[in-house]
Amino acid sequence: MMNAALEIRALRKTYRNGFEALKGIDLTVAEGSFFALLGPNGAGKSTTIGIVTSLVNKTSGKVRVFGHDLDRDIQEVKRNIGLVPQEFNFNNFEPVGEVVVNQAGYYGIPRQEAWKRARHYLGELGLWDKRKEMARTLSGGMKRRLMIARALVHEPRLLILDEPTAGVDIELRRSMWEFLQNINCDGRSIILTTHYLEEAERLCRNIAIIDHGLIVENTTMKSLLAKLDTETVVLDLQAAAPKLPEHESIQLRRIDDLTLEADIHRGESLNTLFQLLDAAQISVQSMRNKTNRLEELFLRMTRSTESGERGIRAAS
Amino acid sequence: MNRLHLHENWTALRTIVLKEVLRFARIWVQTVLPPMVTMALYFIIFGGLIGARIGEMDGFRYMDFIVPGLIMLAVITNSYSNVVSSFFSAKFQRHIEELLVSPVPNSLIILGFVGGGVARGLTVGVAVTLVSLFFSPFSLHSIGVTLSIVVMTSVVFALAGLINGVFARSFDDISIVPTFVLTPLTYLGGVFYSVSLLPDFWQGVSQLNPILYMVNAFRYGLLGTTDLPLTLSYAIIIAFIVGLYLFALVLLNRGVGVRS
Ligand SMILES: Nc1ncnc2c1ncn2[C@@H]1O[C@H](COP(=O)(O)OP(=O)(O)OP(=O)(O)O)[C@@H](O)[C@H]1O
Ligand SMILES: [Mg+2]
Fold this sequence. Notes:
Helix content of chain B: over 70%
Order of helices and strands of chain A: EEEHEEHEHHHEHEHEEHEEEHEH
Largest sheet of chain B: 2 strands, antiparallel
Structural class of chain A: alpha/beta
Number of helices of chain A: 10
Bound molecules: adenosine-5'-triphosphate, magnesium ion
Radius of gyration of chain B: 19 Å
Largest sheet of chain A: 6 strands, mixed
Radius of gyration of chain A: 23 Å
Strand order of the largest sheet of chain B: 1-2
CATH topology of the largest domain in chain A: Rossmann fold
Strand order of the largest sheet of chain A: 6-7-8-3-9-10
Strand content of chain B: under 5%
CATH class of the largest domain in chain A: Alpha Beta
Structural class of chain B: mainly alpha
Order of helices and strands of chain B: HHHEEHHHHHHHH
Number of helices of chain B: 11
Helix content of chain A: 25-40%
Number of domains of chain A: 2
Oligomer: heterodimer
Number of strands of chain B: 2
Shape of chain A: elongated
C-alpha cells in the first residue's frame, strides 16, 4: 500500500492563551497530489501547517508524513517536507545565495552540492543574479520566490506553501503556477493555501476547506464544483428591458436598467436562457460569470452563523 | 543520534558555525573592534597611569598582573553577547525557523551557536592579547592550561548566552544579564586584584563567584601564579558546561521561546 504524503488524525491545538485553533481535524493528502487547503482568515490553516512542520507543538492527535510518525520519527518527517511559510522568515542580513545554501547545509548537503542546487533553484525562480545581495533588498515578490527556492533545495517529497502568491503580481503569479505545476509533475506532492480561489481551482485536484478549526469539506475539486447547483451570470443589455420573462430553472433579476443577473440551474443550457431573452425581445451586449464558481461555494460553506462576527467594521 | 546521519550532521554543524562566524565577521566594527579599544583604555588607565602607583601585585608589575584578567573579561563578554544576540535576533526575525523545520538535532543547534560564540570569544581574546603587547611583555607559563581554560570558559559563557537568548523577549532582555551579572562578577572575580588582599570574610564571599576560578586559572596559565587550586577551577568549569548544556537542551527540546 502506498503511504499518503500527509495523514492527519484528530489533530487539536489549544494555544497557551487558551484559544482552541484546531478542534480535531482529519486530513489525508495522497502522494503526488496538488492539494488546496482553503479557509477564511484565522481558520487554522497556518496552525495546521505549523504543526506538520514542527514549528507549533500540537495538543493532541496524530501526524504522519509518508508513513513517518511525527512523534516517533520527527527527523524523517522533517527531511521529507519543504516549507514556504506565510511570513518572511529568512535572515534579512544574509546574502540571498547563503540563505539557500545554509538551508541545504542544515539538511546535510555539502557546500559544493548546495551551491549547485542553489544555482538551479534560484535560477529557475529568477534570483540567481541576486545571490550576492542582502535578502532585505529584495522586493516582496522576490522574497516569496527566495523562500520557494529555499524550501526546494533539499528536494523534499512534500512541498507546503502557505499563501505563496500573496503580494505577487499577475504575470509572476502565472509563472509561479507553471513552476509549481512542473514540480508537481516531477512527482512531488504539494499542499497550498491561498485566498485566490481561482488559483486553487486552476492548480489543485484535491481540496479541503477548514473553518473555525474544523474541516468542513474534503474532496476532489471536480466533485466540489459539481455541488454548485446554480451558476450566476451577469448580462449587460443594449436597451432597458421593460419586463422580465419567467422560467422554472432560470431566475432573472434586475440589477439596474441595463444590467440583469440570471441564476441558471445546473443542467439547464445557456440556449434556454437566450431563447427566453429573445422571446422577451431583450438584446444582450455582453455576458460574464458573476464570480468564480469556487468562490461562491466557499462563501456558502464558511459563512459564519453570527454575521457580525467576521468582517471589517468601519471605524466609528 | 542516528549513525546513518553522522555525515549529514557534521555538515549541518559546520554550516551553523560558519554562518555564525560570518555573522560577527561581517560586522567586525561592532564586534571585534570595540573590545580592542576598551582594553587599550584599561591598559593605559589602570595599568599605565594608576598601576604605576600601585606597585606590585602577587609579585608582578600591576600592568602585567591585570593582563590575563582583562583578556578573560573580553573573552567572557564576547562569547556571551555573540550567542545571546545571534539567537535572539534569529528568534526576532524568525529565521530560527529555518533550523526548527530542518532535521538538525537540538544538540547540534546548541553546539553550532556555542561554536560561533567561542570563535568570537577567541578572536577577540587574540585581538586583545595583541593590544596588550604594547603595554606588557608576553608571558606564557603553560600553554595547555591557558588554552584549555580560555576555550572552556568561552564555552560556559556561550552556553549561558544561549540560555539568555532562549528566554529573552525583547532587546532589553539581552543586555540585563551582561550588565547586572556578568560585568560585576568579572570585576569582582579578581581581574584587578588578587583576592588574597581581601579580608577573610570577603575572600570567602569571592570564592562563591565562579568567574574567580576561571580568571585565576587563566592567570596561572600565563603568569604561573594563582590564589586557588587549579583542579578546583577545572572541576567548576566542567560542572558549569555540563549543567548549562543540559539545561539548554531541555529548553530547546521543549521549544521554550521558539515554538507556540
Ligand atoms: N501563537 C498564537 N497564540 C494564540 N493564538 C494564536 C496563535 N497563532 C494563531 N492563533 C490563533 O489561531 C487561529 C488560527 O490561526 P491561523 O494562523 O492558523 O489561521 P489561518 O487560517 O492561517 O489564517 P490566515 O488566512 O489569516 O493566515 C486564529 O484565531 C489565531 O488568532
Ligand atoms: Mg495563515
